[in-house]
Amino acid sequence: MAEVTDLDPNQFSCPICLDLLKDPVTIPCGHNYCRCCIKNCWDQEDHGRVYSCPQCRQTFTPRPVLGRNTMLAEVVEKMKITGLQAHTFADCYAGPGDVECDFCTGRKHKAVKSCLVCLASYCETHLQPHYESPAFRKHKLTDATGHLEDKVCSHHDKLLEVYCCTDQQCICYLCTMDEHRGHDTVSAVTGRAEIQKHLHVNTSEEEQRLHTAVLVNYGSDKH
Where would I find the RING-type domain in this sequence (predicted)? Predict the structure, then answer.
């Protein structure tokens, strides 16, 4: 077994409370939770008599009996003794300038990805359903970013994936069939690259003009 100091404590955090697992239990799909966390979650689903995993959304009927994961509990206890918990989880919390996870309760963790379909940002733990559940397979993930609403068309609630060269603005594909019909358009990625290229050329030309002016002025002072 690997040394406790070689383990990543993030692998032993509860997907619900995001703290190190307390009295860890494993449910039938293989995911681990604090006993109290998954119990409270399933208590809210008692009315439907169908219980789901908060991570992969697999459902169970009847309500599974929660069995303690003894091996996992021992590893967590050793991690607490070595003091890894405080150091690692402090690094996960969002600070000034970080994008916060929209699904963390209490103190927010840093978001690692943003979903352009959900218009939400996720920490490593809350992002897992996007990787594991077929329901999220077509969602578009990007690096964690704030102001996600700026990436969506205010008229059609679609992603701004098209750049209108005629009006010099990003639009969605529905806009190309509406007010921007017949306009010269390219993908937003291509449009961004062209703008950056243009800015670079203009900057280079400005720098060259400035350099020339300095040489002229310097030459005049010498005389």
Answer: 14-57
